[in-house]
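Sequence, please.
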């Protein structure tokens, strides 16, 4: 006897007839296998791996230890120690919003190191100049904050509103980072919506 084609939860499967079990006898072997596979697949779904995020950030600043990292299928958030005081050449550092906006439109990762402005001020200036670009930063930054625990969310919000913190946005990876020189840390966020 050949394989028996059956539909289970809307998906068609060809398994030997004995794997399906008898009707009315509870869960069959096929149901158990599919449920196990679904759990394994879903548990492995993360947006980013820590090593890949560290590699990206290492192009921007000198990294220390990972203080926090969490990634799901929808968002990634991390906090990393750094002793750096400057952005490296792996990202284009700008001191004006207009120049940074032009580079983002070209797909270039940009570090907004604007004197006297907090990242939230840079975001507002970007929003008034180009709403769609600002929306990309908002999605990658604020939507991903749900991947932080409450204490990390508070730290992220404080840094977001602190003048002198550098806002970094990578349009290619849809990633946002907040480089806090004084706190010797960098916050990383990315979300898929």
């Amino acid at each position: 006897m050949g394989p028996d084609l059956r539909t289970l939860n809307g998906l068609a499967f060809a398994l030997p007839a004995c794997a399906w079990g008898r009707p009315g006898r509870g869960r069959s072997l096929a149901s158990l296998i599919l449920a196990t596979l679904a759990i394994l697949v879903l548990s492995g779904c993360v947006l980013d791996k820590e090593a890949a995020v560290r590699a990206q950030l290492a192009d921007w600043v000198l990294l220390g230890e990972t203080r926090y990292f969490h990634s799901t299928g929808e968002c990634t958030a991390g906090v990393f120690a750094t002793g750096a005081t400057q952005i490296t050449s792996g990202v284009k550092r700008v001191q004006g919003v207009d120049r940074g906006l032009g580079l983002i439109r070209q797909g270039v990762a940009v570090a907004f190191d604007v004197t006297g402005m907090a990242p939230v001020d840079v975001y507002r200036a970007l929003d008034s100049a180009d709403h769609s670009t600002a929306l990309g930063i908002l999605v990658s930054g604020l939507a991903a904050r749900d991947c932080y625990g409450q204490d990390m969310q508070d730290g992220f919000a404080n840094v977001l509103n602190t003048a002198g913190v550098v806002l970094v946005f990578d349009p290619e990876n849809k990633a946002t980072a907040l480089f806090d020189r004084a706190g010797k840390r960098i916050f990383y966020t990315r979300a898929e919506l």
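Residues 91 and 109 are 6 Å apart (CA to CA).
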